[in-house]
Amino acid sequence: MRCRSEAGLRRRVAGMATALLVGLSTVSYGAVNAGATAGRPEASEPSTPSLEFTNPNSQALFGTAYEAALKNLLQTNTISYDPAVYNKSGLMDPDAGIVRAGGGYPQPWTRDASVNSWNATSLLSPALARNTLWAVVGKGSDGKLQVQQDDQQWDQVIWVTAAWNHYQVTGDRTFLQEAYQTAADTLTIRGHATTAGYDSTYGLFTGASFFNDGIAGYPAPPADATESVSTGSMPWPGVATGMFLSTNEVYYAAYVNAANMAARLGRPASEVASYRSKAAALRSAINKRFWNAKTGLYDYMLLADGTAGPYQEGTGLAFALAFGIANKSQARSIVAHAREMTWGMPDTYPNWARYSDEQPGRHNAIVWPVVQGLWAGALARQGAQEDFASETARLADLADNNSGFWEIYNGHTGVVDGGWQRLGDTVKFHWGSQPDQTWSATAFLNMIDSGLFGLNFGDRGLSVMPTLPAGWGDVTMRGLRYRNATLTVALHGAGTKIRSFALDGRRVPGDIVPASLTGRHTIDVTLAGAVDKDRDGDHIADSRDRCADTAGTAALHGCPGPGHIESEDALNTGGVKTNVNHTGYAGRAFLDGLWSQGAASSYTLHRATAKPGVGALTLRYANANDDARTMTLSVNGQKVRQVTFSRISDSWDSWGTVTVGDIPVSGRRPVVTISYEPGDNGSINLDWLEFHSTS
């Protein structure tokens, strides 16, 4: 929610984030096998890998989103910092920047810094990740390093898992030594806290759930119907003393990873055993108090008076799978019974009584990409190929359709939507959804890195355990930096079963790339065991579907025909996004944001023939400006002509059409683009496009 207090909310309103598995699968690694580089490895430049699918439709869907995610993390949201503000730890590199939370949120924040580091930053830019992690660490009055607490206790605790992951990825022993002292001191503080501390009656930690820092994420009780106490969560007594699934899972992971750190550093056996004992006790309490055999899922909450909350928490279910808290039977049950919305795994579900499909809560029955990423990573870990494919395709679509990675989307329509919440009084406030959200982008990067390619980091090195769904086609990642090596990783076939694993053409025992590898190398993995169904419901098996995750027609091998394409399904860039704040549109939404140069909407015309031809293009649009507006029409990047959009009426609820003839096309996948170029004045809304061949 990013409204950590009412004052903070008002400041932001006035001034107006595996696939978790790269980091969290390391929970299960022991700290044995001394294969990591001692000290700090050689500094490396940020890695900007390329993603190449042999299937052009997969490239258009996933490759486009991947490039946007890399830009989001390594350019848009990598910023310089004020040492007086952020280097309280004294451990930051003045030559490296930090990663901010995203558009509208210039801070790194402890939770966001941690999630973004384990999702992608530690792999793609170790120096940037290290700086970002240290940016949220300070020193106590005794001079000891402590993770800073923003407004919630898990802000401190989640850092521990991110730090362990950073070490596993980089082998940076100097970082590990300092991180362990930070983790140990921070966990001691949390263990003795009187607010949001340990409840010995239940054997669980109290305090707000990991993700839900706003009261919209909670039913009543502990909330009330008018959210009268606060927009934040911790001011509510029932939240502060309640126990929530994801928070206790975060503590469990922190204890496991503190034990891993201690063992790797050769700390006394009693120290390691203490952390492992606390982790085991917490896992047992989580399963005793939260598992619900009737629903086949973990409950969301347990209030101090014993009231259970049999609701679904997307993050909590993802953590249960990723951290290994759920046993095999429970894991199968979670995958089978978890409810997803049309556009992905929601935060909490279903709607609380005070919200609805028309007005979803900011943290209730609404889709946050950061949650989608955690869930997709957990699905890949369970071998749930079809579910993983669908969740990854949803987020790729959301990014491609909306000019990049936003903060929150409506779970039913996929429209950019910040959700609803009380603003500290009786007025229900509709939040904005912020653009360029870092943890939304790193969620997708992790879907690809840890889900699709199955990159898994341990003391011995890098293992590859891919999940390549049927219909996506072979895929290659080039230019991936891993410690002191630069890797090309190529996946062939489909499925999760590794038939062959070769490094530079030679079989590697154990399917592991050693951490000591240097220079440029190629990994080839051939897969089998694909589940071949019909994910998009177009009656074509995924293995034969040229557009396996976009419903199409049999005549075009599963790809949508050019006869009618909704604008909300186009590749939209330059600030163009979906909206539903006017009436009369077709489909699930229309497009706005065609307001400045660089805004564009691109439509792939899947044709039955590759022969050159000519056609007529019809666009449905709204123009309530005082005059006619113009946009530029291009085909495959080549300008064809300027199109005039006449004024329709004085209402944006009125729609009209314009038809342009003699449009030249060739190939099976020509791309038609409507863009705001120099000489245009734009500022229209778009509803759909139709193309019909005339020769």
Automatic annotation (TrEMBL):
Residues annotated as domain CBM6: 563-692
An annotated Gene Ontology molecular function: carbohydrate binding
Pfam families: MGH1-like_GH (PF22422)
Gene3D superfamilies per UniProt: 1.50.10.10, Galactose-binding domain-like, Maltose phosphorylase, domain 3
GO biological process, one term: carbohydrate metabolic process
InterPro entries (UniProt xref): 6-hairpin_glycosidase_sf (IPR008928), 6hp_glycosidase-like_sf (IPR012341), CBM6 (IPR005084), Galactose-bd-like_sf (IPR008979), MGH1-like_GH (IPR054491)
Origin: domain of life: Bacteria
Coiled coil: none
Protein name as annotated: CBM6 domain-containing protein
Taxonomic lineage: Bacteria, Bacillati, Actinomycetota, Actinomycetes, Streptosporangiales
